[in-house]
Each structure stands twice: as C-alpha cells, then as structure tokens.
Amino acid sequence: MATKTIEPPKHGFLILLLSFLCLLVVYPLTAGHDSNAYLIRSFFSLLLVVSLYLFTYNRSWFIAAIVLFIPSIIFDWLGLVYPGITFNFLAHLFSLLYVALAICGFRCLIFSSLKITTDTVLGTICIYLLIGVFYFQIYSMIDLFSTDAFIGTFAANKEEELLYYSYVSLTTLGFGEIVAKSLPAKFISILEAITGQLYIAIVIARIIAVYVKQEKS
Predict the structure, then answer these.
(1) Residues in domain Potassium channel (predicted)?
(2) Concatenated DSSP letters for 58-91?
(3) Radius of gyration of the chain (CA)
(4) Residue 180: what pLDDT?
C-alpha cells in the first residue's frame, strides 16, 4: 500500500520562515528602546499564530496545539505586564510545550512527503529554527530560578542574549560572550549542540533518500 502524503497548508512554512526572520531582525534593531519588549512579544505571538495555522492539516494536532497556544499567549503577555517568576515561568513552560508539539507535528508533516518540494525544504529550516526557540525557553526557565546560571555581558533584556546563546549553541559556533556556569545550563547546552548536529545529519540523509527514490520513479 502506498504511503499517503500529507500536504502542508498553502505557503505555511514560507510565512513561518518570514516570521522567524522578522523576529531575528527586530531583536537587534529595537535593542535599548522602550518598546523593545512589546515588539518582541508581538512578533513571538505572530510566530505562534503562524505555527497554529500549520497545524490545520490534522484535527487532532490542531486541538492539542490550541490547548497549549492559548495559555502560552496569555501568560506571555501577563509576564510582561506583571513581571515576576510565576507568570514568566508559566509563559516559558507552555511555550516550551507548544514549540515541542510544533517540532513533532511539523516533522510528521514533512517526513510524510514522498518527494522533495519547496515546502519540504522550508519546513526543515523552520524546524531547525524552532529547535533554537525550544532550548531558549529552557534557558529562560533556568535563568528565572538561577540568575547566575549564565555569565557574560548581558543587555537590559536578558532574554535577547539567551536567544542569541541558544542559536550559537545550536550551530556550535561558541563565540564565548556568554558561558553556561551552572550544571543544568551546561548540560542543556551540550544537549542542544548534539541536537543541532544530529538534526542536520538526519535531515540530509532523509532528503538524499527521498531524492534517490524520486529519481528512480
């Protein structure tokens, strides 16, 4: 029996990738401005909304995403209006779970494809970027309970630096401006670096396998 190919929502991964690029551009351009935190929250909320659109390919995935999406948005904005550990922890926790669900759901969507398409390529890039956001949420939770878990020169908004640190760890660039000090932070940093390398290896192997099969057919 032939495996059924699931088609992603039209232009979904392209829109998600553009949302990511907007988020990464807004971070440095608005650094130091009073509106920085609100702009970042707005673009991150947009990122979650676009991700939610991609879940519409499957009813079960979509319902699960809605359950995590709503508290993620609510607690994220409450954490901005009412600074403190409680709302911020809940915001990072639900965002972490939502992003984890997105990674799993989008992986199933992409790996069901029997041919290499633009959506396949864009989807694999989006998952890679989502992995960076996933670990960023973990680092942020660690920092909430242990403010000296990371050492380095931080901006006024420490979350900006932790997002930067996450992608530096994911790509194994390791510039060294920020260093993990606590044991949990070190362990998660190692895990992220391994995840980044394994993901690239697995995706390349998958694309080659599908391409070879596509050429033979």
Answers:
(1) 158-211
(2) -HHHHHHHHHHHHHHHHHHHHHHHS-SHHHHHHH
(3) 18
(4) 86
Of 101, 114, 32, give the one whose Cα is nearest residue 64: 101
180 forms beta bridges with 150
Instruction: Collapse the DSSP code of 109 into the 3-class scheme (helix H, G, I; strand E, B; otherwise coil) and give the result.
Output: helix
How far is it, in rounded angstroms, from Cα 120 to Cα 13?
9
- The more confident residue out of 5 and 211 is 211
- At 103-158, the pLDDT tens digits run 999 988 887 776 778 888 898 999 999 999 999 999 999 998 888 888 876 665 67
Helix/strand/coil (H, E, C) string of 131-182? Answer: HHHHHHHHHHHHHHHCCCCEEECCCCCHHHHHHHHHHHHHCCCCCCCEEECC
**pLDDT at residue 56, rounded to an integer:** 86
pLDDT of residue 1 exceeding 60, the answer is no
Q: Where are the domains of the chain?
A: 12-216
Residue 126 in tokens: 């989006």
Largest CA distance in the chain: 59
